[in-house]
């Protein structure tokens, strides 16, 4: 004889189903950072990304991939060359599935042969760093920037907020979501590409986000408006959101000519 299923049980099942769907809709981001030493290495990686890697990702349904380089104001201070590659994915499994697909892609292997088959005496990079992020609840999908300026003139600002502890980290994430810091960025047209919790990286606990601007003047004007905004003044003064950032690391980058945005 079948047992009667209670209404609370049915409600619990429905709630869990909704939570699972929402979790599945939250994107995962892979941020690759190539650490380079020479111009030859930079050219090799550029050629690989432009002619092999991005086309292969496009063939596998990843339509928009961002490739960025640091904005250098004083060449004498540069100790290494960097290339950032931003890859949006639908799930954790997407990372492993992508690697499997690339391993079977003969076109990718042919187009990227110089990079992929490089010998140990002529390596294409010094180190390859990977950071994995989970999109924020209130910004579950990445957004393409709404900009009109040429790629080379744009200023993209990649920020990393490190927290003293895991609890303070969650508090800062809550400040973006429940505190509506994301809403403030939207209202002031910061053209944010993504907001993400770092779930694997060398500087944890921390979160990262990327805002975009037409140029340096546009960037400075936006942050001036942000600092003067009444809601920001109120939010940043709330007792519950104090001391949740121990280090703010800001990188200014621009999109390469072959970047998708």
What do you see in this structure?
By secondary structure, the protein is of the alpha+beta class. The protein has a single domain (27-255), classed as Alpha-Beta Plaits, CATH 3.30.70. 39% of the residues lie in helices and 25% in strands. It has helices at residues 7-25, 39-59, 93-104, 106-111, 113-116, 166-177, 181-187, 216-228, 230-237; strands at residues 28-36, 66-70, 81-89, 127-135, 155-162, 194-200, 206-213, 247-255. Strands 1-3-2-8-5-7-6-4 form an eight-stranded antiparallel barrel. The protein is globular and about 55 Å long. The protein starts with 6 loop residues before the first helix and ends in a 6-residue tail after the last strand. The relative contact order is 0.18. Mean pLDDT is 92; it is low at 7-23.
Outline the fold blueprint.
Elements: H1 7-25, E1 28-36, H2 39-59, E2 66-70, E3 81-89, H3 93-104, H4 106-111, H5 113-116, E4 127-135, E5 155-162, H6 166-177, H7 181-187, E6 194-200, E7 206-213, H8 216-228, H9 230-237, E8 247-255
Antiparallel strand pairs: 1-3, 1-4, 2-3, 2-8, 4-6, 5-7, 5-8, 6-7
């Amino acid at each position: 004889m079948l047992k009667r299923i209670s209404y609370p049980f049915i409600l619990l099942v429905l709630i869990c189903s909704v939570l699972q769907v929402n979790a599945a809709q939250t994107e995962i981001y892979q941020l690759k950072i190539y650490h380079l030493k020479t111009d030859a290495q930079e050219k090799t990686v550029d050629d690989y990304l432009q002619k092999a890697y991005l086309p292969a990702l496009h063939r596998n349904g990843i339509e928009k991939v961002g490739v960025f380089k640091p904005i250098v104001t004083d060449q004498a201070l540069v100790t290494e060359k960097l290339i950032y590659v931003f890859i949006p994915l639908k799930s954790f499994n997407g990372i492993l599935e992508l690697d499997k697909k690339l391993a079977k892609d003969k076109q990718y292997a042919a187009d990227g042969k110089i990079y992929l088959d490089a010998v140990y005496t002529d390596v294409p990079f010094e180190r390859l760093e990977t950071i994995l992020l989970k999109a924020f609840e209130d910004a579950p999908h990445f957004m393409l920037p709404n900009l009109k300026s040429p790629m080379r003139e744009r200023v993209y600002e990649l920020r990393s907020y490190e927290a003293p502890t895991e609890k303070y980290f969650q508090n800062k994430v809550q400040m973006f979501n429940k505190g509506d810091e994301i809403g403030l960025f939207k209202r002031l047209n910061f053209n944010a590409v993504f907001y993400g919790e770092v779930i694997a990286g060398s500087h944890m606990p921390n979160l990262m986000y990327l805002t975009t601007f037409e140029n340096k003047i546009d960037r400075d004007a936006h942050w001036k408006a942000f600092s003067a905004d009444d809601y920001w003044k109120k939010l940043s003064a709330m007792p519950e959101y104090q001391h949740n950032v121990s280090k703010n690391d800001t990188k200014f980058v621009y999109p390469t000519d072959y970047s998708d945005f």
